[in-house]
Amino acid sequence: MNADPAELQKFSDLAHRWWDPESEFRPLHEINPLRLDWIDSIAALKGKRVLDVGCGGGILAEGMAERGANVTGIDLGEKALSVARLHLHESGLNVDYQHISAEAMAQAHAGEFDVVTCLEMLEHVPDPASIVAACARMVKPGGHVFFSTINRNAKAYLMAVVGAEYLLKLLPRGTHDYAKFLKPSELSRMCRDNRLAVSRLRGLTYNPLTRIYALGSDTDVNYLVHATREI
């Protein structure tokens, strides 16, 4: 199974705090409107069949469901999925949450989804290329795939690890392993190897003075990729 038990345990221990906007998951709550608007502006989510890979507690999955998408969320963290299912009682939304790996899902549901999202996950798995391949298999020809992860360079280490985890304390210490970060060129190659044509690359930046996140051209640290499946 393409998962690190230590990573699963890390998020399992925090699962009960997933929907607390002042918790360790505060950054996810704050960036969700930005990434959701960006995805919707490209893929027009309403009425689309969408798969969220590595959905965790369901912050993005619920956002896409609220936009009118038919959403399935998959994750290997059972506690996170329990929290996600429980939150549906509060939100009144409909999301199909499943405890299954991306690779197993791809074997059972190849070419079934209009949109596949995989955000903030690739830097937490042993074999990100396998996840990219699975996402490519699950999207329909001409469909949309979205990834987000962290660049690998000195600035990314200083900002995403030293800054975010130790100085600003936006994230718990040990959240990220620098060795697992991916350069945009590496992720783009993985996409090309799986017949995904990369069409958009956007950076996600954080201003510690204003405490505001923004999407732009700076991909030095956090970045998002949009690709389409070749027909």
UniProtKB/TrEMBL annotation:
GO terms for molecular function: 2-polyprenyl-6-hydroxyphenol methylase activity; 3-demethylubiquinol 3-O-methyltransferase activity; polyprenyldihydroxybenzoate methyltransferase activity. InterPro entries: Methyltransf_11 (IPR013216), SAM-dependent_MTases_sf (IPR029063), UbiG_MeTrfase (IPR010233). Pathway: Cofactor biosynthesis; ubiquinone biosynthesis. It is an enzyme of class 2 (transferase). S-adenosyl-L-methionine binds at residues 35, 54, 75, 119. GO terms for biological process: methylation. Keywords: Methyltransferase, S-adenosyl-L-methionine, Transferase, Ubiquinone biosynthesis. Its EC number is 2.1.1.222, 2.1.1.64. Belongs to the methyltransferase superfamily. UbiG/COQ3 family. This is Ubiquinone biosynthesis O-methyltransferase. The gene is ubiG.
